[in-house]
Fold:
Amino acid sequence: MKETNERLIEKSAPGVKDIDRSWMTTFWETFSDCVIEMDTQYTVLNLLKKANSTFTIDIAGKNFFEIPADKEKAFVDSELSILKSGEVPFRRFTFLSKLGRYYRWTLIPIYKDGVLKGFGGIAIDVTTQSLNEITLYWQRAIIEEGSDFVSIAEVDGRVLYTNSVAYKMTGYDSASGEIPLDKIFNGQYLEAVLRDGHRKTIESGSWSGFTEITCKDGKKIPVEHNMFSIRNDKDETILIATVIRDITEFVEHEKKMEEARKAAEAASIAKSEFLSRMSHEIRTPMNAIIGMINIGRSADDLEKKNYCFQRADAASKHLLGVINDILDMSKIEANKFELSYSEFDFEQTLKNIVNMANIRAEEKKQNFIVDISEDVPLNILGDELRLSQVITNLLTNAIKFTPEKGSITLKIDKLEESDAGVVLRIEVADSGIGISKEQQAKLFTSFNQADSGISQKFGGTGLGLAISKRIIEMMGGYIWIESELGRGAKFIFTIKVKKTKGKARTKLADNVNRANMRILVVDDSEETRSYFTHIMKANNLSCDAVAGGPEAVYMIENSRDKPYNIFFVDWIMPEMDGIQLTRKIKEINGESSIVIMISAHDWNTVEKEAVSAGVRHFISKPLFPSALINAINICIGSDADESSGDAEHEGKGLRYNFKGHTLLIAEDVEINKEIMSAILEETEVSVDYADNGRIAVSMFKDNPEKYSLILMDINMPEMDGYEATRIIRSLDLKRAKEIKIIAMTANVFREDIEKCLECGMNDHTGKPVDAAALFEILAKYL
Structure:
């Protein structure tokens, strides 16, 4: 090391005597962390470090730029360039190294025969000093650029420092001298501060208070007044710092909070709470009524019109019940609530209830099961409106608190029958969020829900269960709940009704040969399969049930000696859907096989393709026993060649026919989806919907060859149409570059259309959707 040091000294200070060289070597070894020598390209030739050096980077043979942190490299390059220019005899600069420590470098150029050969010098660790400087800088910035009045005074009160904020806050000019404390503070308050505040600050280290200061212009500002003791190493107070903070916003906020609290207390009056919560309950069925009427008015098909108006009628009845809740609660509280008894068709009442509730269940893709025991009377004497009100409320809650693709079951059993009447047990079970024991205690109290967050997240008045409980009790029954948090819930109640004469239960037709009939049910819902076998067993019919198409094909192929003759097939199933399975059934079992399709979806959506595949009849979910038996009667008693509905539809002579094509429509609004389905129905095109751009990208990526064209909404949650289109176009798939993507949006200005084209879309169609324009653009690309 000594030899290298001497070489450096010789290069940087030629002619220095040996004793001086030794002195310089000792100086470097004592006061520097390292000595460095490098060539003109900054390659390190020698690096000498003392034993306890903090400089631990090994860069011998590497470039000097391996030392600085990335953010410092530009600065280092600038400094070395100046040194290399030869304009200065040395360069001293400090930078942060990759070690996280600051080093001050002193470098000199090394010449030989007037030619620059490299550089040499030393580095000193100045981390502590640098960090102290940085700390002082930001402390000064906080004090000077902050929003608090700061001053420092000696113990005797002589002010040594006042920041600029203090003058700005009080309105005084710094050039005029100190801020007059006797003018900005109330005299009595200032006296207390001087008497008690200083003493407590010195004794305990700090003091605080709240007051008002008066500015030079007379304006009063509420402030938080704090004093702190600054002590020496002997723990003696040598200075007192004062910090005054403007708390105007805080005080105003507190006033507003107090006003809001009082307003909230006033708003908690029971009747006001009741009316505000009723808004949601009224709007839900009203939306169903308006939507179904509009769709029904524009429909050409009489069956569809009837379907829409039936659902609107069911929703209107529910709406009437909700409105009457206002009077019901008043009557209950006044003990003047009465029931109105009449004879009614219980099964039809249940169908009306289920039709209304199923609208929301379909939207959430929930599995809705109705299980009615064979011994439940079809016609009863009771209060139809009140019973409907209770069941509807329980179903609505079950659907609301159950996630998508969950299960809802309405189960009705007869417990007992006597001369006094029939006791029915009605259960609404769900696979939803569940309810804890503590929450259950609040459920049947007026205006209460399981917890305070329920109404915000799910809506509801919090009144339905209280009214339901009272109605059930007046019907001679009681209600209870079986639930655990996170494991769904069962709301169960009993009622007493009287059995009456009315329409006869639907029975198998006389020409149905039970002995020769074999039924196969294909549905991916375990609950549906169980319900089917229960109903068929009750009617002495042989029935097997499987979960999907492949299992069904296996059963059919292995029962050729005693083949199935009626198939109940769900439309939407994994692996093989109902249409595909129908074709397979006809292929294996023969064209005479009777296929009855079941689905929670609108028959109009699948009718043409289903009939073409050989489907004979359709039943809407949830399933009722009478509907199943009636379907068998119709199909067994009908002509095998009956296809009047299909022939009638084909006779319309469609102008646009896109049969064989599948559209992917990215649309997040349910009513818009329903409108699109209604418009596209006559074209026979298949449609898949995606609720947002992210889902649309995933669906296309999973099956790119399936889709002939994409209709892309622009404004959607999670991912909009622009981003979704860019991602699709960037996929490493040939189809991603070829498929036509059409913007579908209410943004119809020229710049909006240009933006759609720029991101990779092929064309644009506006909203509201014009059927003729939509058909033309589809025809253009399909």
About this structure: Confidence is low (pLDDT under 50) at residues 16-21, 448-461, 638-654. The chain has five domains: 2-131, 146-251, 274-499, 517-650, 662-781.
